[in-house]
Amino acid sequence: MRFSVSRSPSPVQRTIRRPTNAYSIHNLTDDDDDSSSSSESEEAQALTFSHAGTGRGTSLTLSRALTRSTQEHSVDAFLSAVKLRSRIDPIEEYQNAERAATKNIHPPAPSLPHLSHMLAQSHSALQAKRNAEEMAAVLGMVERLDIQTKGQEEEGLRRVKEGNRGMWEGIEGAIRRDEEKKRLEEERKKQEEEKRRQDEERKKSELKEERRHKEKVEKEKVEDLARKVAQEKEAQAKAAKEAQASQASALPAMPEWENAWTERTELKKLTRAVEKNAELRSAVGKLRRKLGTRVGQVTNSHSELEKLADAIYEIIAPSPAHPSPVHTALLFALSKYLLLLAETELVVARGHGKLWDILWARFVGRMSGWGVAVYLKGRPGTSETEWRKIVGRELEGTNDPDNKRPTPKTASSTLTEWWATRTLRRPSNDSYPSQIQLESVPPPLWIT
């Protein structure tokens, strides 16, 4: 009889039951394959251990024939285990070898569930392998497509950039050409404008120089003509004054008054003709207003008097001279201003020989027969209005009785006019200013 024990030391066999460790030896025999050898020794002693918590039997069953004490049995078991471990059993080795050879020649047939499980695992592994291979192929294809797509995109972007670059270069080149063309056109226009401006300035300067030359020539001609006319007028005036002086000294009062009144009538006709002409009326009106501002100034300064006289002279006889009707109308207006402003100190400039005749005619028209010390009588065929004008008592308010009922001039108004003319007549014979000689004053204005 043989006993099969584990390689670990056998526990000491006891007859009494005692608690074991958490894990204890369950079977001291070899593997299930040793069932044949174990069956042959059914009568051998078997050691059984169980888990302490399972409630199984933990008693150690020994052979009924064993009667030795527990201590001795334990010693014998220990010694037997040591011997078994230190000695190789040839039979056991043979049996083990035979059993291994038998297993290799005739492997145990697996069970159907086990086979199905293995097939399923093999299929799953194969499917997983195929899936992995397909996934790898797909991923490789995707990677290749991605690389190809990126390459195509990069190539497309490169082509687009090159196209855009070429397009923008063309656009910028066109813009530069247009700008250059525009700049050249502007420069050409500027040059043409500068050339035209220079030509215009040159022409203007030439025209200005030519006009200045013509004006100078014309001015010299006018000055020569005016000088000649002035000399002729002066000679004629001098001759007329001498003749008038000789005639005035010989004429009695009535013919003198009649001559003055006739002169006044002719002057009236001339002034009416000027008033009917719009152009002459406008020119005379402006100059008359200028005369009014000059004549109305009052001063005792000799230099101021000369300035006023020169200003009046420039208005009446400028260069070139006024037409004869305008000149006569201005002298007629000046005479009127002198009579109306006789109370003011006045100076009349030299050079207007006809002024004395016109002034004397206005004087007689203003003062009637008193200016020449003659008594006027009524004339046949003379209306009342005309007679009132002759004697200096015309109606005030209007010269047309049919338009508005006029009022006769009062005695105080008539005396004021007489004293004013007396004031004007007296300075005309004074020795001041020294430039006006007594011989230059007409004899009718002398006070002897």
Could you characterize what this model shows?
By secondary structure, the protein is mainly α. The protein folds into 3 domains: 1-107, no CATH class; 109-250; 252-376 and 410-445, no CATH class. The chain contains 11 helices and 2 strands. The chain has a two-stranded antiparallel ribbon. Helix 6 runs antiparallel to helix 7, helix 6 (278-295) packs parallel to helix 8 and helix 8 (324-340) crosses helix 9 (355-367). The longest helix is centred in the middle third of the chain and has 139 residues, at 112-250. It is rod-shaped. The termini are far apart. The relative contact order is 0.05. The model is unreliable at 1-6, 8-66, 343-351 and 430-435 (pLDDT under 50). InterPro entries: GLE1, GLE1-like_sf. Residues 30-43 have a biased composition (Acidic residues). Pfam families: GLE1 (PF07817). Residues 1-58, 182-255, 394-413 are annotated as: Disordered. This is GLE1-domain-containing protein.
What is this structure's SSE topology?
Blueprint: H1 35-40, H2 70-86, H3 90-105, H4 112-250, H5 253-276, H6 278-295, H7 302-316, H8 324-340, H9 355-367, H10 384-391, E1 395-396, E2 407-408, H11 411-425
Antiparallel strand pairs: 1-2
Helix pairs in contact: 5-8, 5-9, 6-7, 6-8, 8-9
Are there runs of 5+ residues with pLDDT below 50, and where? 1-6, 8-66, 343-351, 430-435
Structural class label: mainly alpha
Beta-strand content estimate? under 5%
How many alpha or pi helices? 11
The overall average pLDDT, rounded, is 69
Element-by-element helix/strand order: HHHHHHHHHHEEH
Q: What best-fitting shape do the alpha-carbon axes yield? A: rod-shaped
The rounded Rg comes to 82 Å
Q: Count all strands and give the number.
A: 2
- End-to-end Cα distance, whole Å, is 212 Å
Into which percent range does the helicity of residues fall?
55-70%
Count structural domains. 3
Q: If strands are numbered along the chain, what order do they take across the biggest sheet?
A: 1-2
Specify the biggest β-sheet.
2 strands, antiparallel
Region (Disordered): 1-58, 182-255, 394-413
Biased composition (Acidic residues): 30-43
GO cellular component, one term: nuclear pore
Biased composition (Polar residues): 1-13
